[in-house]
Design brief:
Length: 425
C-alpha cells in the first residue's frame, strides 16, 4: 500500500538540501561582490594617492616651461633629453614602478586633441612624447575640466579608451608658478591588473561557497538524525502549559512546523504573563491612588494646591507637590502645610525655610517684590503666567519681575493658581 505522507526525515532532506545550495550560492556571491568592491576601492585609493603625490612634487616653474615647450614648435626629443624634463620625469617613473601602475603622467586640456601630454613616466612603445595629443571619453574630459577649474580629484569608472584599452583613471591638479591650476596628473591602471585581483577574489569566494555547502550539509544531517528530540521537547512544553506551569525549557531547533507551534505557544504564555503583570501593576496603582485619596481627604485643601510657606508684604514662598496622586506626595503636602503654619508663628523657623522645604517631592516658587525676582527651587522647572505671558523657569534659577505684575502658577492640567499679588488671592 502506498504511503500517503512523506516521512519527516525525507521531508527535511528535501527541504534542507535546496536551501543549503541556495544559501551557499548567495553567500559566495555576496562575498565576491564585497571583495570586488574592496579591490576597486583599493585601486581607487592607490590611484588618487599616486596622482595627488605626483602633482604635489612637480616643480611649478619647470612644468610651466614644459607646457610652453609642448605648445611651441620645438623639437620634443631634445626637450625630453634636457635636464628640465629628466629631473621631473624620473620621480614619476619611480612612483609608477613602485606602485605597479600602468601609466603615470601629466596633461593639459586642449592641443591637438582633448588633452596634451607633458610628462610621461612610461618608457618604450607606450610612451607619449611631450606635446602629443589624445582624445578621451566625454565623461573623463568633463572630469579633467572640473580638476582644472575647482582643484577637485577625479576618479573615472572602468572605461574603454580607443588607444589604451580598458582603464581606470584618477586625476589631481598641478599648480603653476602663478599659484593657479595649469594642468593635472593622471594615474591609470589597466583592467588586466584588476582582473587578476578579481580572479583571486573569485577563487576565494568559490572556496567559501564550497566550505559553506559542506558545513550546512553536516548541520542538516545532524538535524535530521535528531528530529525526535525537538518533538519530544515540544510535547513536554505543551504539557507544562496545559498543567498551568511556566515552562522552564523549550525547543531550540526542529522542523518549521515545530518551530511555528513553539513560537505560538511562546506568544501565548508571554501574553498571559504580561497580562497578569499588567493586572498586578494596575491593582497596585489603584491601591496607591486610593491611599493617596484617603490621605488627601484628611488634609486641608487639595494635594495639588500650592502650599504657602511664607506670606509677607514683599515676599511669597509657595511649595508645589511634584507627585500629588501618590501617598508620598500627599504626605509631603501635609508636612509642608504644617511647616507653613509654624512659619507664621515662629520667625526663627521662617528664617531657615530653605533647609526644611521638601524639594525631593516638590518645588518652591519664591517671589521677592523688593529684589524684583521670581525664583524656582527644586529638581524640576516651574511654569508661570506673568501678566498673560507664559514663562518657564529652569530649576534653581530666577527671572525678573516688574512691579505690579501678576504671577499665576500653571498646573500640569493647564489650570491656573494666582500667586501674586497677595491681595488677589
Amino acid at each position: 500500500m502506498r504511503r500517503k505522507s512523506v516521512p519527516i526525515k525525507a521531508l527535511l532532506v528535501r527541504t534542507f538540501l535546496p536551501a543549503v545550495v541556495v544559501v551557499s550560492v548567495l553567500l559566495a556571491g555576496l562575498v565576491y561582490n564585497r571583495l570586488y568592491a574592496s579591490i576597486l576601492n583599493g585601486f581607487e585609493r592607490k590611484l588618487v594617492a599616486a596622482s595627488a603625490m605626483t602633482g604635489a612634487m612637480i616643480d611649478p616653474d619647470d612644468h610651466d616651461r614644459l607646457i610652453a615647450a609642448a605648445r611651441s614648435d620645438k623639437d620634443t626629443a631634445t626637450t625630453e633629453a634636457s635636464p628640465l624634463y629628466q629631473r621631473n620625469v624620473r620621480p614619476i617613473r619611480h612612483i609608477r614602478d613602485e606602485l605597479g601602475l600602468t601609466y603615470l603622467y601629466t596633461q593639459v586640456l586642449g592641443g591637438p586633441g582633448d588633452i596634451q601630454y607633458i610628462l610621461d613616466g612610461t618608457e618604450g612603445a607606450d610612451h607619449s612624447p611631450l606635446g602629443s595629443g589624445d582624445d578621451l571619453p566625454g565623461a573623463t574630459v568633463a572630469g579633467l575640466k572640473r580638476v582644472q577649474a575647482r582643484g577637485a580629484v577625479y576618479v573615472s569608472p572602468i572605461e574603454y579608451q580607443e588607444q589604451w584599452g580598458l582603464l581606470k583613471t584618477a586625476a589631481s591638479p598641478v599648480m603653476g608658478a602663478n599659484g593657479q591650476i595649469t594642468g593635472s596628473t593622471g594615474a591609470d591602471v589597466n583592467i588586466s591588473v584588476i582582473q587578476v585581483a578579481t580572479q583571486n577574489a573569485l577563487f576565494q569566494s568559490a572556496m567559501i561557497g564550497i566550505g559553506s555547502v559542506l558545513v550546512c550539509l553536516l548541520v542538516a544531517l545532524a538535524l535530521v538524525r535528531r528530529i525526535a528530540v525537538p518533538i519530544e521537547a515540544l510535547t513536554e512544553y505543551t504539557l507544562q502549559i496545559a498543567g498551568g506551569h511556566t515552562p522552564v525549557s523549550g525547543i531550540s531547533s526542529g522542523p518549521r512546523e515545530v518551530k511555528a507551534l513553539r513560537s505560538h505557544l511562546d506568544m501565548l504564555t508571554g501574553a498571559m504573563a504580561r497580562s497578569a503583570q499588567q493586572r498586578e501593576q494596575e491593582e497596585e496603582r489603584a491601591e496607591e491612588m486610593a491611599r493617596a485619596a484617603i490621605l488627601s481627604a484628611q488634609t486641608h485643601g487639595k494635594a495639588d494646591e500650592p502650599v504657602i510657606l511664607i506670606e509677607e508684604e514683599n515676599r511669597l514662598v509657595a511649595w508645589i507637590s511634584g507627585e500629588p496622586l501618590i501617598p508620598q506626595g500627599v504626605l509631603a503636602a501635609r508636612a509642608m502645610a504644617n511647616l507653613g503654619q509654624i512659619c507664621i508663628v515662629k520667625p526663627d523657623i521662617r528664617a531657615i525655610w530653605r533647609d526644611l522645604a521638601d524639594l525631593d517631592h516638590g518645588k518652591c516658587i519664591v517671589i521677592d517684590a523688593i529684589a524684583g525676582t521670581i525664583e524656582c527651587l527644586g529638581t524640576s522647572g516651574c511654569e508661570v503666567d506673568v501678566d498673560g505671558k507664559t514663562r518657564s523657569i529652569a530649576p534653581n534659577s530666577r527671572m525678573g519681575l516688574a512691579p505690579h505684575e501678576t504671577v499665576t502658577l500653571i498646573r500640569p492640567d493647564r489650570s491656573g493658581f494666582l500667586l501674586w499679588p497677595r491681595g488677589g488671592r
